[in-house]
Amino acid sequence: MSRTLYCQYLKKEAEGLDYQLYPGELGERIFNNISKEAWAEWQKKQTMLINEKRLNMMDTEARTYLEKEMEAFLFEGKDVEIEGYKPPES
Length: 90
Prior knowledge:
Elements: E1 4-7, E2 12-15, H1 24-33, H2 36-52, H3 60-75
Antiparallel strand pairs: 1-2
Helix pairs in contact: 2-3
Organism: Aliidiomarina minuta
GO molecular function, one term: iron ion binding
Family: Belongs to the Fe(2+)-trafficking protein family.
């Protein structure tokens, strides 16, 4: 059964995540306020960031950096800046 929520990223009603994908308070906030669609967008950006910056996910600093970027992207409407990446022209 899917659940609908008001997605803070998309600024509209959308299908919510099936379960909490991220730990802690931030994970709870994402689960309650971010849609599947928005999470998928973040996943693409996250992959690009990890590759671009060659982040080692075993490194605490890298995880902290990624978490800050995730929060800014999902909740503050800030796009992730990836050097050398040009979004496709629509």
